[in-house]
Design goal:
This protein is mainly beta and 257 residues long. 5% of the residues lie in helices and 50% in strands. It has 1 helix and 22 strands. The strands form 4 sheets. Strands 1, 2, 3, 6, 7, 8, 9, 10, 11 and 22 form a 10-stranded antiparallel sheet that branches. The longest helix has 14 residues. The chain is elongated and about 75 Å long.
């Protein structure tokens, strides 16, 4: 077993690594309140806390102590948490990645004259794992389309890329209705432009044919009702009025809890 962090595999850093435990689900973050005169507590539900990933590591014998120190220096630079979140992929779970950074010090125990052992603990502020090879769907006609997400085990926050023409009049709009939730698009969108809606970041932007950002896309959204895709069956409906619809590209951003 090994792992890849920021595109570099642990073997390339002279590390033998293995998972010693696995957090099957992140700890819940509960919302409780004490209500005077009521027995027990009031439960206002919960959401997910961060995820921690623990990896036990050994450094292959390096012949000389100075070589061991050099290897540890390289590892310290590679895993520098001050560089921010990077993509972490575990060999034992090769279908997904986590956005992670190192959460503790690297404290190496010298087990031979030129070999060592240590534990790495990564923190994932977003506890979900995301598909390395994801599903995408293309809708090119007005009406109702059924799409099925086969990857992941929870709902996902997709990226929508819409191509069409909407003029600046109040009568011109395109509606995207995802599983009954309506997203109405009003405001100017010209031929050759693409409106990109990112549900996970709660942002929208308009880009040109070369991908250059032209302007903020949030004013085009009548309400900030970002789409969510279910695991399994989904229904997407396109409606237009005094507008032209070319294509809707959906990137699922499938994930696991």
């Amino acid at each position: 077993m090994g792992f890849t962090f920021n595109g570099v595999h642990s073997k390339d850093m002279k590390i033998k690594a293995r998972l010693t435990s696995w957090q099957a689900s992140p700890a819940p973050r509960n919302a409780y309140e004490i209500v005077p005169g009521k027995i027990g507590i009031a439960d206002f539900g919960c959401d997910s806390s961060e995820r921690y990933i623990k990896i036990s590591c050994n450094i292959y014998p390096q012949r000389k102590l100075e070589n061991l120190i050099k290897a540890l220096d390289d590892i310290s630079a590679w895993l520098n948490p001050m560089e921010g979140l990077k993509q972490l992929v575990l060999d034992d779970i090769p279908d997904r990645y986590f956005s992670a950074r190192l959460n503790t010090e690297i404290d190496c125990e010298r087990i031979l004259s030129s070999a060592g052992a240590f534990e790495l603990i990564f923190i994932c502020p977003d506890p979900n794992g995301y598909a390395l090879t994801d599903e995408s769907f293309t809708i090119s006609q007005v009406g109702t389309q059924n799409i099925t997400r086969a990857i992941g085990n929870i709902e996902s926050y997709p990226i929508y890329q819409l191509k069409g023409i909407i003029d600046s009049s109040s009568a011109s709009f395109i509606k995207i209705i995802t599983n009954g939730d309506e997203l109405k698009l009003t405001g100017r969108l010209s031929a050759g432009e693409t409106l990109i809606i990112d549900s996970s970041l709660l942002t929208a932007k308009v880009v040109d044919s070369n991908g250059n950002v032209l302007r903020n896309g949030l004013p085009i959204l009548d309400e900030l009702n970002f789409p969510i895709l279910n695991k399994g069956a989904n229904q997407v409906k396109i409606e237009i009025n005094s507008a032209t619809f070319f294509e809707l590209k959906i990137y699922s951003k499938s994930c696991w809890r």
